[in-house]
Amino acid sequence: MRLVLAILLLATVGCANNSHDQCGNKVLLLWPTASNEFKFREIEFTTLKSPYELKGSAAEVFYEGRVTDSGYDGSVARPRLTRAKGGLCVPTDAGSSMALTAYKHFENLQIFDRSLGRGRPGFVAAQSGCGNSHSRGR
Fold first, then answer.
1. Which domain holds residue 44?
2. What is the pLDDT along the chain (138 residues), one digit of tens a residue?
């Protein structure tokens, strides 16, 4: 029985790796339309090397991050995705969808900042109303 479970686990991991390699830079997300309705749309990411790690020139999105005495601590978000036709990535849970949506908004802010010729290209920072907590951007 254990041998069968081990073989199934290895087969599942092998399929996940193949899916990872073939997933493109487009993700299916709920996105606002011109009439402020949210509909599923294919959203293209231009600053991510991989949608499996939300770290790029626009920002770094963290999952379960926290502020400590030594600064910001946490790990870069790694969304759970499955692959659909044509290399389209589809988030498999709400947290993955929200993290990808947050990154895309940072990407759009970077494009907007560059169009204005203001600020450091690729830098996005947010500060809360209390203390010196920051979320890191690039």
1. 2-135
2. 444 433 433 333 334 444 445 678 899 999 999 999 999 999 999 999 889 999 998 888 887 778 889 887 788 899 999 999 888 999 999 999 999 999 999 999 988 888 888 755 444 443 333 333 344 444
CA nearest to 85, candidates 47, 56, 42, 136:
42
Contact 136, 60 (CB under 8 A): yes
Length of the chain: 138
Q: Of 119, 116, 138, 111, whose CA–CA distance to 46 is shortest?
A: 111
> What's the total number of domains in the chain?
1
**pTM reported for the whole predicted model:** 0.69
CA nearest 63: which of 110, 55, 108, 45?
55
Question: Residue 19 and residue 67: Cα distance in Å, rounded?
Answer: 34
